[in-house]
Amino acid sequence: MFDDIDLQILHILQEKARIPNAEVARQVGMAPSAVLERIRKLEERGIIEGYEVRLNPRHFGQKLTAFILVEASRAGNGRLAGELAAITGVQEVHQVAGEDGYLVKIRVAGTEDLGRILRDDFMAIQGVIATRTQVVLSTIKETRRIDLEPAAGP
Hey, which of 38, 60, 127, 142 has its CA 20 to 30 A from 5? Predict the structure, then answer.
């Protein structure tokens, strides 16, 4: 479980992960050492999984985002997710309910790269039966932030 102070700290860190510990402490009205200890415990419990920099993929030539539904045979399900995750450009792999076994998010330079990866990488994986691809035209919202309001604890 977490208390109100933990939730305040998590709100602050989600907004700006690089904020100095002393500033977090000032905002929650605690000593910096106490805040540091709380953050350390949140990390140890796996509530805070890590800190990362968000880069703009366009600056790295990755202008096309697509979502690929992967229909998989039962025989391929044991290792298939790992093989999908290892493909260059793949950012997310989700096992989903329904006919399709996986939903994959990929970023690539353009449609030529996407076609090549679908042909050469996806279809080369044993257990992949078919793929259906949705190309993103524009992104309105993309975030990794978690809604902390209904937080009842893990």
Answer: 142
- Asked if pLDDT for residue 151 goes beyond 60, the answer is no
Instruction: List strand residue ranges (DSSP E) for 40-96, in order.
Output: 64-72, 90-95
- Report the DSSP beta bridge partners of residue 130: 71
How far is it, in rounded angstroms, from Cα 32 to Cα 101? 47
Report the chain's C-alpha Rg in angstroms: 20
Specify whether the CB–CB gap between 36 and 42 falls below 8 A: no
Please give the share of the chain, as a percent, with pLDDT higher than 70: 95
- Of 86, 69, 99, the residue nearest 125 (C-alpha): 86
First to last CA, the chain: 6
Q: Which of 151 and 41 is assigned the larger pLDDT?
A: 41
CB 107 within 8 A of CB 57: yes
Residue 153 has pLDDT above 60, yes or no: no
Looking up tokens 């260059």 gives 88
* Orientation angle between helical segments 21-28 and 32-44, nearest 10 degrees: 100
Using CA atoms, how far apart are residues 107 and 105, in angstroms rounded to an integer?
Answer: 7
